[in-house]
Structure formats: C-alpha cells, structure tokens
Amino acid sequence: MGSIGNPLAVNGTTSHEDATAVLHLTSDINATTPLGKSIRLKLSNLFSENVTAKITRAAVEQLKNNNPPVQYPEIVPQSGSNKGHYQSREVEFWISGFFPGCIYAVLERAIKFPSSLGLTSEEAASCLPLLRKTLEVTGKTWSDPLRSQASRTNTHDLGFMIMPHMRPRWELYHDRQALDTIITAAESLGSRYDGRLAAIRSWDNMDWHDGVNITSMEDNFLVIIDSMCNMDLLYYAAAQAPERRKLAEIATTHARTLLKSHLRPETSVTRKGYTGTLYSTVHLVNFDPKTGQIQASRTAQGYAADSTWSRGQAWAILGYAQCFAWTGNTEFLHAACGLIEYFLYRLEVAPSCVDVVLPDLGGRTAGRYVPLWDFDAPIEDPFNPLRDASAGVAAANGMVILSQALRGYGQDVLARCYLEAAVTIVKDTMDLSLAREKVQMHVDGRGALVFQDVEEGRFDSILKHSTVNNNSASHPSKKHKDHGLVYADYYLLEFATLLTRLGIC
Fold this sequence. Notes:
The protein is of the alpha+beta class. It has helices at 16-23, 34-42, 49-61, 98-112, 121-143, 158-173, 176-190, 231-240, 245-261, 310-327, 330-348, 389-408, 412-433, 486-501, and strands at 71-77, 87-90, 193-194, 199-200, 206-209, 212-214, 221-224, 263-265, 279-281, 284-287, 294-298, 356-357, 365-366, 439-443, 449-453, 483-485. It has one domain (10-501): Glycosyltransferase (Alpha/alpha barrel).
C-alpha cells in the first residue's frame, strides 16, 4: 500500500449529504469484472440458501412463548446441554438490536437483490413471496418492542440497539415511526455528552470485575472504544433532521477525543507499503470528570489493560471508518487506516497454531484471518486457540465502508487493498467458523415455509467461534467463550448487504 495523501476538499470536510453519497457510490468493481467474479466465488457460502433459511427459521421459532418478544437471541453454545440453541437476553440488554437487524439485512436483499439469497429459480418462484412476507412480519415484531428503549439516557449502546433495524425500516418502507425512534435515540445518546470532557459517557459504573467497584459518576467518567460505533446514530439523525446538527458535532468531538485517549501509536511495527502510523487500542478509559485527566486505562473484556482486545480494535476500525465517511475529516481517515493496518499486521504475525488444516477444504488451512480473542493473550490451547469471529467480520465491515469512501475521493488503489483484505477475512471466517449444521427451506402443501436440517444436529447461528468475554477478572456470569454470537451473524449479513448494494455480488 502506498502512503495516504489528502484526497479531501478544503478544510477536509464534506456535507452530510455528500458523505451519504460516498457510502452509496456505485463501484467500478462489480459482479461482471474479474475481481467481482472472484469475490462472489470466494464468498459463495455467504450467498447461500443456508444463511437465508437459518435467519428466517430463527425469526419465526424464537417467537414461540415470546411474542411480543421480551427476550432477544445472543449466544449459541457449542457444547453442553443447550448446544446449538440460542440463549437469550432481556430486551434492555445492549445486544437486542442485532437479531432484528439480521432479519432486515436478509429482507433488504430479498426485496432488492433476490438473486443473492442462494435460491434456485424453482425455489425462488415458490418461496420468495412467502419469504419476504415472513421476514417483513417477524422483523417488525422483533423491532417494535425496541422503540421503548430509544428514550433511555442510562446507556450509550443506543446505536447498537436501534440502528440495525430502524434504519432499514425507514429506508425500505419510509416508516416514520422508525425515523422518530432513531431521532429520539440520538437525542438520548447526545444527552450523555459532557462538554468538559468533550466526550459521551459510556458506562455509569463498572462493578463486575473482581476488585473493581466504580460507582460514583461524580468522580469517574468511563468511556469505552466500543462507543465509536454509536456515533453513526448521531450522524444519521443529524443528516435526516438537519435542525439537529448539534448531534453530528457531538459525534465528531467525541471521536476526536478518543483519538488521543484510546488510540496507541505502535511506532515499533510497520506493514510493507504503508507509511502512516499504526494504532492499537485501549478498551476502557476512566477520566476525572472535574479535571478531564485520565485516571486509569483498563480493559473490561480483553486480556489486560495494555493488550489489544481484538473486538475493541474492530469497533475502532468500524467507528472511525463511519466517521470518515460522514465527515471526510483526514484525522479520521488516518486513524481508520492505522487501525486497519495494525489489525492486519496482528493477523499476519499470529502464531502458527492459528492455521488449521480442514479435511473438507481438501487439506488447505484456514484460520489465519480469524482473529484471536485478544492479540496479546497467552494461547491456552494450541490445538484450539480461542478466537473471536465477531471481531473479524465487524472489522471487515469497516474496511468496506472505508474502501468506498476512499474510492469516492479517487484513492482507488488503497480502496481496493482494503476491499480485498475484508474479503480475505470473511472468506477465512466462513471456511473456519461456518457452522456445518446447515438448513434448507421449502413451501409445503399447505403453503407454509418448512425448514429442514441438512446434516445431523442443529446450530442456530451461522458462525461459530466467537468470544464475548474471557477476561480473567470478570464475574463468571459475564464470561462466555467459543460460541455462536448474534452480532457475529449480523455483521456477516451486513457485509453481504454492503457488497450487494455496491453491485459486487
């Protein structure tokens, strides 16, 4: 990769309308070009009936004894008495928006890009109308209860909880209630901004680590790198309702603050062809709300305060890519590129045990680009190193968003590099982590959708090998590792949607 110049307009900014256009540019890499054909071939498992059927089945079956839903799917254990079946969390939990987001990701392609669903022409003729209706009805059923969460001012996670499903409801159906929910959520998130700190408070407290009991909001101001992914909510609301432009200004200010507090320059490492600074990330920073000074840097879910938790790095990649796409600010461009380069560097230099020989791949290896749960954590089992597939697919989304934004500014070489890197990560993730327990669907004689497990056994999520939390100091109830995970599936599906919007697949 070559060095990054300044591809931007005067003052390094664009309007919200210009930035939105960047996100939806039609790429000259499409399904008919050699690269487009290569990508579609590499990701054939992503555009398969199995993926469509799994989400649709879960959308229907998880409503049993849960309609209207109060419990939302989160984890699929890979062992134990609940192996293969979703375990759920309460509607108030931060992950609740991802499952309806999965439904709408498939629904958007069912409406706009039905050829991407992996259905044969015969199946499409019989299944597609009923599939669309099923996804539309269940999507709204899962989404509606989350409208009440938009007015919460005690959480920063409203972007995760609201955007994955309310944004497509607004864009696909011009559902005014969905847009109102987005704007309400953005105002709620904005209320957590403190001008003294130039940041949005992430957590009100932290008391689920041994020996850590942070409860005073007067003496502590907790900010996590995950918060960067909630800035998209603020930018989007400001773009849809220009009178709320202050929300976009808050997002930009928050992002600038975290450039200094959460990004660590890695001056001792380089990647060939890249001349900028590489960045790792701090997960959690505790500011003194009176002085604005950093009191402590910690990790809540990673290995150690000075390690690089792979999903935290992915949140930073996705968040800063979105910030650059909205604003065009060069500081966000350099941050996103430096974060991506360090992420790729750590994948490339990971120990050899990450390479797994898989018989069904003809003896080829997979796993090099499926990140370890923390890049600096000791390998506990060299025969089964602990991964976090969700980190890889979340980072890949950020790479595609940044790729398209760069293409909009004429940075075609760098844009192609990041697109290809994203495809490499997702292909390797599908090779290693795709659940082998697959599903088919058809319409029966009564005109109902029927789902059938292709192979013996059942696994509700698309991907395996994610890790929510393996921090040794976390309370046992907070520790979950090596499992299926709803937001791994969401970012995988969103990746597919991004490619189809761009005409690549």
